[in-house]
Amino acid sequence: MVASVVLPSGSKLVLWGHRDMTGLPQIYLLAFSILCILSKVCAQLCPTPCACPWPPPRCPPGVPLVLDGCGCCQVCARRLGEPCDHLHVCDPNQGLVCQPGDGPGSRRTMCLFGEDDGGCEVNGRRYRDGETFQPHCRLRCRCQDGGLTCLPLCSEDVRLPSADCPRPRRVELPGKCCPEWVCDQAAELQAPGHQFSGVVAPLPPGVPCPEWSTAWGPCSTTCGLGMTTRVSNQNRFCRLETQHRLCLSRPCPPARGHRPWNGAF
């Protein structure tokens, strides 16, 4: 004979007994006793009727008022890393859940990000951890550890005026994602009898090169190592070029507490 009791947490308690009818009263008596014990425990955790303080508590800026775990009174939502229990619940708007701490054998519960929140959300679409995607034709991004790593797909070169192209201009052409350089009135401004080979020689020794550089751009990643670029003429040709270097915005969060990245392009 098998009987089951559904606990308040939603789990099921299975009771085994004899197959004959003589054990049936004992099984139901045991189930009734368990329900009485559980009802007393729940009554201690969630008093009935509700006895809520007035006025409601004043929360710090950015912390919402939520119903406690009993669905009875308003409490300030607990934030990331703060202790939590059956009454003091975590902020659901931040995707926080009450779970055991990171320490081995820790019995303390705190608000942490859910295990399934390791992806990234961009323009209303969610991407899995490790997935590569293109939010725009000019960018390729990768979702990793709750952050984004994006690299530009278009060239960032700078074209200076030359004999064959005295007026370079970067324009967006129909049907193409990346802008391209075009020349205006090259034939009219080119001196007759002079041809430009397109080969640039290094500056002779002793010839000064006035420094010209842009500021380093933003890091290509939201966390961890990334790449930043600038345009500078500090090279042996004294010619503008795009330069790259590594950058570190901030360390990425631990693998367990993924925080979804939410943004738009």
Automatic annotation (TrEMBL):
Keywords: Cell adhesion, Disulfide bond, Secreted, Signal. The keyword DNA-binding does not apply. Gene3D superfamilies: Complement Module, domain 1, Thrombospondin type-1 (TSP1) repeat. InterPro entries: CCN (IPR050941), Growth_fac_rcpt_cys_sf (IPR009030), IGFBP-like (IPR000867), Insulin_GF-bd_Cys-rich_CS (IPR017891), TSP1_CCN (IPR043973), TSP1_rpt (IPR000884), TSP1_rpt_sf (IPR036383), VWF_dom (IPR001007). Residues 42-123 form the IGFBP N-terminal domain. Residues 1-43 form the signal peptide. Residues 118-184 form the VWFC domain. The keyword Ubl conjugation does not apply. PANTHER family: CCN FAMILY MEMBER 5, CONNECTIVE TISSUE GROWTH FACTOR-RELATED. This is CCN family member 5. It comes from Cavia porcellus. The gene is CCN5.
